[in-house]
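Minutes, structural biology subgroup

Action item carried over from last meeting: produce the structure token record for 6-carboxy-5,6,7,8-tetrahydropterin synthase (Pseudoalteromonas fenneropenaei). EB confirmed the sequence was re-checked against the source entry. Recorded below for completeness.
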Amino acid sequence: MILFVNDLTVIDFSYLCNQRGAVGESWIVDVTLHGNLNEESMVLDFSLVKKQIKRIIDNSIDHKLAVPTSLNGKYQLDDERVVIDYEFSGHHLAMAAPKDAVCFINGDSINYDSVIAFLRQTVLPQLPKNVKDVEFTLRPEPSRSFYYHYSHGLKKHDGNCQRIVHGHRSQIEIMLDGIPMPRLQKERAERWQDIYLGSEDDIVTADALQEVTARDSDLCFAYTSTQGYFELAISKDRCDIIPCDSTVECIADYLARDIKAQFPDKQVMVRAYEGVGKGAIGIA
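Output recorded by EB:
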């Protein structure tokens, strides 16, 4: 018997790519279960599919940095901390964080196939014995507009958003006096493609870093939040610094004000997404 659940959850995470660096991504997850009927004449109760499998996925990869085990760099992992030092296309990224901020995936790249294999290996052993196999489909949200991939960290967040390198694939819609502006949307999406959005308040000097080594071309960030101490050194040209927190509310407001400065006689509306089907609207 085969059971399926579409739109089970969304994975919002970042991954390391040897060409692009830290890539923020958002994938919708569909799941199919193969198995025998249990004593309730079910393969698995839908409520358990939605709660149990979603919880496993959330705990294993959601709001984390996914790292291929064949990394173009080096990493150290112990019971509490992870330290990564990584090169990509002439750029640099080094991060130190609590170990739960990272998941390691077998292979030399993070893609649909490697993440699907990771999910299957992680989820199947935790399901009832009558479930013989589990399949996953990963897909991006259909785009109505231009989109960008960004990574960030929210030190004030009480949940997993505080992890210093996690991210999203996000659409952006910009309107002037109620008229959509595809050119402006394209320009912003290209500017923020594969970007790290850093907050001014989180910038530190290289000497302040405790666990990673920065290069002269790096920007450095560090903060302590409820999950522990985080720090990051990343090439300056892979960052954009904003004068606020990088919540989607602040991003929408920042973009609206930034665009308003270019078009002072226009009413500006920015619809900024955070992953799939959610976001904030900024008006200036």
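Discussion: The chain has four helices and 18 strands.
Next step: EB to file the record with the rest of the batch.
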